[in-house]
Write a structure and sequence with these properties.
Length: 477
């Protein structure tokens, strides 16, 4: 169970009473306006800060390409051999391996302490990258960056999904993610401006990029300590009756408003669920193109014939379009209570964009292809998280599945940094077809999951099985 030593006992009692109370029709006992206002209050307290901090995480992990164009290659030879690809890839092993331990520590320390440690830790690693004397030390800093960021994203996805009903969650995940997407999309322009400080204090432009972004991250870590939101039953910003309402809704929706204890037996049971691994592979397929463009979009644009300055400036518009697309698909998915069909549509958008970028010759058409890739892949990331969140029950399974899925995203990052090779510049056809393969895998897994889920839902409707050990629970398809 979560530690309750620092939290009001009445909120813990509320959580326990919600578990003991039989599920009632959703929101039947609450005034709709009261529910709406409370959820809006939660939204504003929960999503903006988390989205802002995660946007900095995305910038910090993918700004290596921007720094390389701002003088790093001349100073430490980042483009010698495969150094750039290796420096990009070494971030991911620690990021992948520490996902599940991170969510276990989250349950022990609580959100405020753990997230603050993560943010200040990777801010320190980013700051250190400003002063690396050689490529080897840069790789060490990248490993530390991955280790500290490992605990952050799965914790955020886990926390957000505990506050809302199943068919309210994708909009929230999308808002959180699109905030980071838009801000991250402008990171190249920000870095371009920062790089103009080259020569000040005897620092090169790439050093100023790491220095300033590292300081910003550390400041956000301090804000995290003061303002981050914890799990519903441990929050201190809502009134007790509002907390009870939040927990009642979750309990009526899926029956897991109160956290259960994570044991070795439960961990192994959750890890043996094949659907958990299918979600992880789907997340890998989504993040692979997102990481590829995060690391290589300025290089790809430069290969299209744009100048270095224009390549940096043209990175932002696709991410703005992706934010609009991402929220639209999240809204319609929550409204229709469907997941797979909209993942299919966005996957086809990604595939179309890849083909336009690879095989058309007009500069404008290839650039439009990048729009489609960013829009499709960015929209699939919160959609896969919501797909998982809708189809699991219990805090322990939610913690384990979220960690494994986001670890799958780290594998997508390794894949992206290794298949987009320097020798394939400027078309990167090998990388593009590897990315296409991931999209075919996504479509295959969606077809399998939809078939199995539909069959099991029909059996549950006939009373032949109980899904996830929760009477009345049906998979979201």
């Amino acid at each position: 169970m979560y530690s309750d030593s620092k939290h009001p006992s009445d909120l813990e009692d509320t959580a326990k009473s919600c578990v003991d109370t039989p599920a009632q029709p959703l929101d039947a006992q609450y005034d709709p306006e009261y529910v709406r206002k409370t959820l809006r209050h939660v939204d504003w307290r929960l999503l903006p800060l988390l989205g802002l901090v995660y946007s900095v995480a995305l910038i910090d992990r993918t700004n290596l390409g921007i720094a390389s164009t701002a003088g790093m290659d001349q100073d430490i030879g980042i483009y010698t051999g495969n150094r750039y690809n290796i420096a990009s890839a070494v971030y991911f092993p620690s990021y992948i391996l520490l996902q599940i331990p991170g969510n276990i520590i989250l349950r022990i320390l609580g959100a405020r302490t753990w997230l603050t440690i993560c943010v200040i830790g990777w801010g320190g690693a980013q700051l250190g990258m400003a002063f690396v004397p050689n490529w080897g030390i840069l790789c060490v800093c990248r490993v530390l960056l991955g280790a500290f960021e490992a605990g952050f994203f799965p914790a955020l996805a886990y926390i957000i999904t505990t506050w809302y009903k199943r068919h309210e969650v994708q909009k929230r995940l999308a808002v959180f993610y699109l905030t980071s997407t838009v801000i991250g999309g402008f990171s190249s322009i920000l870095a371009f401006a920062i790089a103009k400080l080259a020569g000040k204090a005897n620092l090169n432009g790439w050093q100023w990029i790491f220095l300033i972004l590292g300081i910003i991250t550390i400041i956000l870590g301090i804000l995290t300590w003061f303002f981050v939101v914890d799990f519903p039953e441990k929050n201190t910003f809502l009134k007790p009756d509002q907390t009870k309402m939040i927990l009642d809704r979750v309990q009526a929706d899926r029956g897991d408003s109160s956290p259960d204890e994570l044991t070795r037996r439960k961990l192994l049971k959750h890890l043996s669920d094949p659907f958990l691994w299918s979600y992880a592979l789907m997340f890998m397929a989504s993040t692979m193109p997102a990481y590829a463009l995060g690391f290589f979009i300025t290089i790809i644009l430069n290969g299209m014939g744009f100048s270095e300055e224009m390549s940096l400036l043209l990175t932002a518009p696709p991410y703005v379009a992706a934010a609009v697309s991402c929220f639209f698909f999240a809204w319609i998915a929550d409204k229709t209570r469907k997941r797979a069909i909209f993942l299919v549509i966005q996957t086809f958008m990604t595939m179309t964009g890849l083909m336009l970028t690879a095989y058309t010759t007009l500069q404008a058409t290839r650039y439009f292809g990048l729009f489609l890739v960013v829009m499709g892949s960015s929209g699939c990331i919160p959609a896969v998280l919501a797909y998982n969140a809708n189809n699991v029950v219990s805090h322990t399974k939610r913690a384990v599945s979220t960690a494994v899925i986001i670890a799958g995203g780290g594998i997508g990052g390794i894949f992206a940094t290794t298949v987009y090779r320097d020798e394939d510049f400027p078309l990167y056809l090998n990388g593009i077809w590897a990315t296409m393969g991931c999209q075919f895998l996504m479509l295959l897994l969606l077809a399998i999951n939809t078939t199995v889920f539909t069959h099991r839902n029909r059996r549950a409707d006939r009373g032949e099985i109980i899904i996830e050990g929760t009477p009345g629970f049906l998979y979201t398809i």
